[in-house]
Amino acid sequence: MIPWEERRQLVKVATLYYTEGWTQEQIAKKIGVSRPIVSKMLQKAKEAGIIEIYIKDDSIHTVELEQKLENEYGLKDAVVVPTVGLTPDMVKRAVAKAGAYYLSKNLKSVKKLGISWGTTLAEVVKEFPYIRKEDVKVVPLEGGMGRRHVEIHANQLAHELAKKLNCTCLYLYAPAIVESAELKERLLAMPDIELVLEEGRTVDVAVIGIGNPHKLSTLRELGYLDENDLNYLRKLGVVGDIGFRFFDAAGNVVIDEFTNRVIGVSLEELKKVKQVIAIAGGIHKLDSIKGALNGRFIDVLVVDEQTAAAIVENW
């Protein structure tokens, strides 16, 4: 039990500091003690329950989710976007906007920036501000050629992002998926293709999306996967994909006939990149995002609130 006189002094110090806005130095002079003593008094007031700090803001819930995700999965950073009441399309745009903002504010020492493909990343590039970063080079992380949905291919996204940054970009002149493993080997033997892939393996930051091949799948929509493929992937335990590469719920990389025909940076190579930023939203991607987190493919996650809460509730 703290004596009344001491308790009164603790209340006075706490009031001056938290309510009146005095500095610890000013309080020390007023009551005739050193500044470290004031610091100890404030700590004692907290321990005694005299001071209870409340953060009054709607963001507190999402910040708590961010901290839990960071601690559980060893993330460098997490950004949880408030999306309560939004439609799926609005959720995707909100997450993409947050991802674009995060990326734009974290390019200080980046010289090589890798980007994958997909509809979410296309929204990220669309939301990305115009800033001058002439010393940055943007690199596609997988191939992408053809006439269908060119706007979401890695080459196109690299080109559009480079325009926003006023910098240069490389192009990977090869399809993302080729007809056979033999054709893949022949293409990989071409110096221009191997050079871009090597640049992709050594980027400072990689920006990726996360897909669910079973629900609202862009891979299926584009015709890369049919029902037989999906049944096969289910038997293998596949829950998600990053850059056409599949993984299971535990985060194990799944190698199959499909992935053996992909031209791009592999998941094993992606793990070696200094910082991988995943931007993904939508509750339909819950298992996919969890698998990617379990596989430790990600350093930074930008995700919607509903999905983040479901991840935390179902460790």
UniProtKB/TrEMBL annotation:
<comment type="similarity">
    <text>Belongs to the SorC transcriptional regulatory family.</text>
</comment>
<dbReference type="InterPro" id="IPR037171">
    <property type="entry name" value="NagB/RpiA_transferase-like"/>
</dbReference>
<dbReference type="InterPro" id="IPR009057">
    <property type="entry name" value="Homeodomain-like_sf"/>
</dbReference>
<dbReference type="GO" id="GO:0003677">
    <property type="term" value="F:DNA binding"/>
</dbReference>
<dbReference type="InterPro" id="IPR051054">
    <property type="entry name" value="SorC_transcr_regulators"/>
</dbReference>
<dbReference type="Pfam" id="PF04198">
    <property type="entry name" value="Sugar-bind"/>
</dbReference>
<feature type="domain" description="HTH cro/C1-type">
    <location>
        <begin position="21"/>
        <end position="41"/>
    </location>
</feature>
<keyword id="KW-0238">DNA-binding</keyword>
<dbReference type="GO" id="GO:0030246">
    <property type="term" value="F:carbohydrate binding"/>
</dbReference>
<protein>
    <submittedName>
        <fullName>Transcriptional regulator, contains sigma factor-related N-terminal domain</fullName>
    </submittedName>
</protein>
<dbReference type="InterPro" id="IPR001387">
    <property type="entry name" value="Cro/C1-type_HTH"/>
</dbReference>
<keyword id="KW-0804">Transcription</keyword>
<dbReference type="InterPro" id="IPR007324">
    <property type="entry name" value="Sugar-bd_dom_put"/>
</dbReference>
<keyword id="KW-0805">Transcription regulation</keyword>
